[in-house]
Structure formats: structure tokens, C-alpha cells
Specification:
This protein has 427 residues and is of the alpha+beta class. The chain is built from 14 helices and 20 strands.
């Protein structure tokens, strides 16, 4: 199948990919509500002519698995949806195409121009929560496979499509697929990384700092109370000092960033009445860590920073803040720029865009680390998106098609393709 025919076959699936994207955006798949999106992906895989199957999350297996993150929520009933495109020949290299169906919360619905779970098209852009991160990637990878199947081809080596859950909080969906036996010569995660291939990423630690105060009437606050919310300011200042220290001398390839390690106090909760001195406050934060650092090392640094804040405040030193962990606790990862998956995907990209993609690091994390830990080189490449995790998130439809075309070329070159008619003749 030559380039021209392959690109045309993928472009012919543009309407199908757009329809799939719209359906996915309009399924509000926040944490705990991913199933409607998985039902759509199950139908999409079937629409390619593939048999979809479920990989349920197993809490016990996940809690004891290498690379897992702490969690307390119920995962019973949650599942990944996968489909295996079986080989029609021998040879070629096996592949996993992975995307996540879960999305982050809305931030502030009142700030959105359009209802966030209503897919709205304006010109080349489709707006909606999760449009870019990363339902467009799911549409692109599935559309590429559908185009090749409808053109009458099968791969020479196995290819697995994965729609996973919990990428935004633990990565346990991808981890469960690996525990289920998934393996391949390479993995591409179709995150919204449009004009480059992501070959390195930071690790992430989520932590929660519980601070105890002394309640009192607000009129006597200066004499009798100790405000936990005020005390949280000192704790946050100590954590900011840690963040500053981590950014002093970044290792390669993160030395190209001015500020690669970000501390984000994402949630603060405390107090129970405007006229009562706050008796408690919790800071829920995210901090990055460099590849080569283990989450346990970052935990120690966080706890030391919190202890430093407590020592500088006599009222805190008598009842030190407690640090606990739930959610992301993961290492960073790097794939060598000379890995075959990187060079082959770069070649496919250059035939669509007439230039080679940059090979970049990201100060975010993805599910790539799980595959890399399992010995599967994994990179990220996908459609062009803007304002992910923000207001008026959107994705370029043209980039969805172009990403699918790049993936189609890559699948042909990586896995090898054989006509189904030839396969049947051999049988």
C-alpha cells in the first residue's frame, strides 16, 4: 500500500473520526464516571471490525504491583477496553496504541464559552472538556486502524488498541493492561503532542498536608485561637522553597526549561464557619520529579519541608502537620532518541508534514512510564490541542486527520501490512 493510497484511505475516515470525537466529548468521563466513554470506545473498536474485550481494574492486584499509586476510592466496575488486531502473516514488529478516556473536572463551568460537555465546532476547532486531552487521540488512533482494515489489510505483527481509565490520577488503567499480559515491541500514546514526539517526561507526586488549628470565636482569635488556614501559608512557603531548590540545576533534557519542576497547590479546604477560627486545613498538591528520582525520595523532601515549616511556628511544632499520599506517585522516564520507534515514527511524520518532528521532553507525565518500566519503548504523539485542563479546551480536526495519517504510515512501516485476500489464499 503506497503512501498516497494510505493517506487517502485515512482521510476518507475523517467524518467517522469527527463523529467519534463528538460522542466522546459529550460523555462526561470524569473520575468514577468513565463507563459511558468506554461503551463508546467498545462500539468504535467493533466499528473497525475488531472484537473488543474488557480488562477490569483489580484493586488488590494494583495495590501490590510495581509502579502503582496509593488510592482509597472504589475501582470495582471500572474497566479498560482493548481490541487486538490479529496478525495476518509473520514478521513485522508488534505495537500498542494507547489512549485514555478519563478527563479532569471543569475548573469553572461559568467561564466556558460553550457548555463544556457539549462538543461545539467552530471552523477547524472542536471545543469541549477532553476534546484534546485526549479523546481526539483515541479518535485518531482508531480511525487509522479502521482505514487500514477497510482498505483490506491486516498487520504482519499483532497490534493492540487500548482505551484506558485513570490516566489523570494514577495511570492504573494502563498498568492493569500490562498486568493482563499486554506486551509489544513499542507503544505510542496519542496524547495531544502534535508537532513533536515526546521522549522524556517528569514523574509526579500527589500529597496532602493536614494542618490542625485551635477553634475559637473570631472576636477572640488573636488571644485564644490558632487559624489552620493561616498556618497553611507558612507550609506552602516552605514547599515553594523546595520547588525553587529543585529548579536550580535541572538535568538534561530538562535543562532546556526555565522551570521544569512545578509545585501546584491544587485544592485547599478548611474551616467550617466565617466567625470561627479554622480548626483544620488541608493542602492538596502536585509536584514533579526528574527521571532517576524515585517517588520515595520526593516524599522525604516534602516531609522535610513541612517539618521545617512546623519548627518555625511554635503552635505547629506542638501538633505537627501530617503528610499523606493518595493519587500519583510515579517516576519520570526517558526513551533514547535512537530507539527504532522514535526514528520510524519520525519518518512517518516527515512524509505527511515534509519536515521531521522535534524530539522533546515534557514537564507533565503520561502513562508512558508504565510501558517503559515493562521494557516497552513508549512515546507520545497526537493531535493539536489548546487549553487542556483549562477553560475552552479545544482540538484541531485537521490535526486529528493528519495524526491518523502519520499513525497509518507508521503502522504499515512498523508492523507490516498484508492484504486480507492474500492471507486467505495462504490458508
Amino acid at each position: 500500500m503506497n503512501d498516497e493510497a494510505l493517506l487517502a484511505a485515512v482521510a476518507a475516515e475523517a467524518k467517522w473520526m469527527e463523529d467519534l470525537l463528538v460522542r466522546l466529548v459529550e460523555a462526561p468521563t470524569v473520575l468514577g464516571e468513565e463507563e459511558p466513554g468506554q461503551e463508546i470506545m467498545e462500539e468504535a473498536f467493533a466499528g473497525c471490525g475488531l472484537e473488543a474485550r474488557s480488562v477490569p481494574l483489580d484493586a488488590s492486584a494494583l495495590r501490590t504491583a510495581t509502579g502503582s499509586s496509593p488510592f482509597t476510592w472504589d475501582v470495582s466496575g471500572k474497566r479498560n477496553v482493548v481490541a487486538d488486531w490479529q496478525p495476518g502473516d509473520e514478521g513485522g514488529r508488534s505495537l500498542i496504541l494507547n489512549g485514555h478516556v478519563d478527563v479532569v473536572p471543569l475548573a469553572n463551568e461559568e467561564l466556558w464559552t460553550h457548555p463544556p460537555f457539549k462538543a461545539v465546532r467552530e471552523g477547524d476547532w472542536v471545543y469541549g472538556r477532553g476534546a484534546g486531552d485526549m479523546k481526539a487521540g483515541l479518535a485518531a488512533m482508531t480511525g487509522a486502524v479502521r482505514a487500514l482494515i477497510r482498505a483490506g489489510y491486516a498487520p504482519a505483527a499483532p497490534l493492540q488498541l487500548q482505551s484506558v481509565v485513570e490516566e489523570e490520577c494514577t495511570g492504573h488503567g494502563a498498568l492493569q493492561c500490562l498486568l493482563d499480559g499486554a506486551h509489544a515491541d513499542a507503544c505510542i500514546i496519542t496524547e495531544p503532542h502534535p508537532d513533536h514526539i515526546t521522549v522524556a517526561q517528569v514523574g509526579v507526586l500527589w500529597f496532602h498536608v493536614d494542618i490542625a488549628g485551635i477553634p475559637a470565636h473570631a472576636a477572640r482569635a488573636s488571644r485564644l485561637g490558632f487559624n489552620a488556614i493561616d498556618a497553611a501559608c507558612g507550609v506552602l512557603a516552605a514547599l515553594r522553597n523546595l520547588e525553587e531548590h529543585l529548579n536550580v540545576d535541572p538535568p538534561a533534557p530538562f535543562d532546556t526549561f526555565e522551570h521544569p519542576i512545578n509545585l501546584n497547590p491544587g485544592v485547599i479546604s478548611g474551616g467550617d464557619w466565617p466567625s470561627t477560627v479554622a480548626a483544620s486545613c488541608t493542602l492538596s498538591c502536585r509536584i514533579g520529579l526528574y527521571p532517576g528520582q524515585e517517588p520515595e525520595e520526593m516524599r522525604t523532601l516534602v516531609e522535610e519541608a513541612v517539618a521545617e515549616a512546623a519548627e518555625s511556628d511554635p503552635r505547629l511544632s506542638n501538633n505537627p502537620p501530617r503528610v499523606r499520599y493518595e493519587g500519583f506517585s510515579c517516576e519520570g522516564s526517558i526513551v533514547d532518541r535512537n530507539e527504532p520507534v522514535v526514528t520510524a515514527l519520525s519518518d512517518a511524520y516527515s512524509r505527511v508534514h515534509e519536515e521531521r518532528p522535534e524530539l522533546l521532553a515534557t514537564t507533565a507525565t503520561t502513562d508512558a512510564r508504565h510501558f517503559i518500566r515493562a521494557g516497552i519503548p513508549a512515546v507520545c504523539f497526537g493531535p493539536r490541542a489548546e487549553q487542556i485542563h483549562g477553560i475552552d479546551e479545544r482540538v484541531s480536526l485537521r490535526s486529528v486527520i493528519e495524526s491518523a495519517q502519520v499513525l497509518g504510515l507508521f503502522i504499515r512501516d512498523w508492523c507490516g501490512l498484508i492484504r486480507e485476500s492474500n492471507r486467505k489464499e495462504r490458508k
